[in-house]
Amino acid sequence: MTPRATPHRPQSTQRDLDPHLGRYAQRTVGMTASEVRALFAVASRPEVVSLAGGMPYLPALPLDQLAGELAQMVMTDGMAALQYGSAQGTPELREQICEVMALEGVRAHPDDVTVTVGSQMALDMVTRIFCDPGDVVLAEAPSYVGALSTFASYQARVVQVPMDDDGVVPAELDAVLCSLRAQGRTPKFLYTIPNFHNPAGVTLAPARRGDVPQLCAEHRVLIVEDNPYGLLGFDGQIYPALRATDPDNVVYLGSFSKTFAPGLRVGWALAPHAVREKLVLAAESATLCPPTFTQFTVSRYLAQHDWRGQIKSYREAYRERRDAMLAALAQHMPRGCRWTRPAGGFYVWLTVPEGLDTKAMLPRAVTQRVAYVPGTAFYADGDDSARNRLMRLSFCYPTPERITEGVRRLATVLEREFELQRTFGSVRSRTMPGPQSPCPDTA
Amino acid sequence: MTPRATPHRPQSTQRDLDPHLGRYAQRTVGMTASEVRALFAVASRPEVVSLAGGMPYLPALPLDQLAGELAQMVMTDGMAALQYGSAQGTPELREQICEVMALEGVRAHPDDVTVTVGSQMALDMVTRIFCDPGDVVLAEAPSYVGALSTFASYQARVVQVPMDDDGVVPAELDAVLCSLRAQGRTPKFLYTIPNFHNPAGVTLAPARRGDVPQLCAEHRVLIVEDNPYGLLGFDGQIYPALRATDPDNVVYLGSFSKTFAPGLRVGWALAPHAVREKLVLAAESATLCPPTFTQFTVSRYLAQHDWRGQIKSYREAYRERRDAMLAALAQHMPRGCRWTRPAGGFYVWLTVPEGLDTKAMLPRAVTQRVAYVPGTAFYADGDDSARNRLMRLSFCYPTPERITEGVRRLATVLEREFELQRTFGSVRSRTMPGPQSPCPDTA
Prior knowledge:
The structure is a homodimer. Chain A is α/β, with parallel strands linked by helices. In chain A, helix 5 links the parallel strand 3 and strand 4. Chain A starts with 34 loop residues before the first helix and ends in a 19-residue tail after the last helix. In chain A, helix 2 (63-81) packs across helix 10 (292-304) and helix 4 (118-130) crosses helix 9. In chain A, the strands form three sheets. An eight-stranded mixed beta sheet of chain A has the order 2-9-8-7-6-3-4-5, with helices on both faces. A four-stranded antiparallel beta sheet of chain A has the order 10-11-14-13, covered by helices on one side. Chain A is built from 13 helices and 14 strands. Chains A and B meet through helix 2, helix 4, helix 5, helix 6 and helix 7 of A and helix 2, helix 4, helix 5, helix 6 and helix 7 of B.
């Protein structure tokens, strides 16, 4: 049978807005750009102080030197650096990654490292190999918005475990695990950011670094330890990784985005051997191989450059910014606000007084030329009025002067919200947490 | 409740080989490395002529010039190139991609282009947004092994449509579509490689470039057009893309892997506007953003370099290799062998006489220092003894002399197989097609 000469094209229907509407997979439900995303487009204007994004402060990098090293790399290794490579990543970089992780007490073999396109891809691959739709994943409350978005795209059910100033609370974790066990459910893994948490700005206390792996082992729950900020402790302290405590039950995710540069998108997963095999096969079907070129770039950088000194420069730049933010918060924030005091990383987690709503007031804040991320973005589901009082402030990118000015503007916005509240009562936003929210860390 | 002091660790069980065995997602079933993969590790030794891999011939690239351009890029644009970027890709590169596609008659807006980590990631994202487990995807028979592996990882059911020397056969496509319609099933899309097919080495005839989109439109089936080799036609002819015929019903996948360099992993999807929005959101949850650094590298290359001239150099290098392979096949292949005569791209598709089994004989071929990919790798399911007679020979990477020598060795292997067959009868392999097979294109 040959094709008919006059085919019937589909008639004009309501579907004309998106003629493919009936075709999408279930997992795309809720995969829509939020209104907050549009707002961030405005927030990227230079007159706005953005305390929203998670972009590292790259002027600390010596571009001249990098340019020379890179040209040299192309001259000597160009044929290999521009060619396909192994799905697992180059052997040289995997060895170097083991040296980096050794700083955190991790003893690992390069065979168990899989290089990925940023640690975001590692997270995507881990979720891909472990999660069927409906599977439970544990995460901290709040948790990294990019992780929540990945879990949602695999239709996992996220159960969030409360944190305090010392990180995830073991008793709460135990309660959640026991409650799930009573329902006959075993979570596929606990996703945790032990150091300089995004967004909460807290760090898992040393005593809990035994408790959390122990609880997970008891309940036979794998740990996915995400540690992009571990080397960015402002007093230079490096906490031992959970992976160092329980090598067989932890998948460790690392990244060069914060210690070198995010535009290279070089991250990794260190996984127990059997898991690693599945990770590599999944990664191969996702991208064939991570970019060889950026892997060679990172290898060259680690081999030729004082990368430890560079991390020290970053630490100092971020400490100065953290100090500026904490000083400005202490000086300007109205009574009733609380915030975390991060010992490293990029973020402060701010709680505003009852009756205010950080999402509802965001457009007004942007009008006042300051931006932040409303706290609801960091929760997977459910509505909880306490969450409307939360926001993430990042101090990684703007100068200390801009941070001070941004916090001052934010304080003005809060004062006006109090006035609005006194005049009109509370203004509540519709809560659209999780995957509908933006992933602001790259903005 | 606090953690108990003496936790019970899991007892030693059969699971000790992989203590995580009970935890994996359904989609990992069948996600195991094949024995063929181990064989390819041997095949990468220098004494073996590998006609298996799909690595481009990069010595055609001028490294000195690239090194200089790259250093300049880091000096002038380093801050942006090393920073996070948009999940959709940089605006400059998306504009340049539209210029590249214009060569194939594609009129596109940069807003509808999504840059991905190689076109493999584009394929992964397209499958992610369209395919629920059990959904039907159409592909050519045979089809690109990396696509089959991606479809398998989303638990899609692949139905393959026969091809002839003029590409996919419209009458066969119509028959498959009608048969599926009779079963009440609508495929999510037809995945097709119209130009210089991998692995079949054939090109969709001009007359069929109207028929195939027309049939798909009639049956309301989206087309995913994968076109990595379109600019590598040996006589310089550039075929119009299917996307040029039906912009609203085609997702076009492109790549710089074959026209510039695969180690950069820069590919793209051009999609109808509504689809593009979902693609970007899916890509953001997969990698946050494609590497900014490699995008700037490609942009610089396209802006500063005679990229059309470079493609011409590639075409000439591959034409010389294709000629060497066809001449050697004509000279050495035993009677009863048939093969395709590609007008572009990287691959020849060889059929050996009845009774021989290309998978069973692969270890013996590697012993004779020649490697290829057995045909069964390019089929998603089912067993068909005719497939055991197929193999893919690639001419992209070795020198013409090595290709000639490789084909000579292969002919010797085939002669010995005839002897074995005369002595012992047919030797059949277990057929393990599809996802268990290696993705040899990066080897």
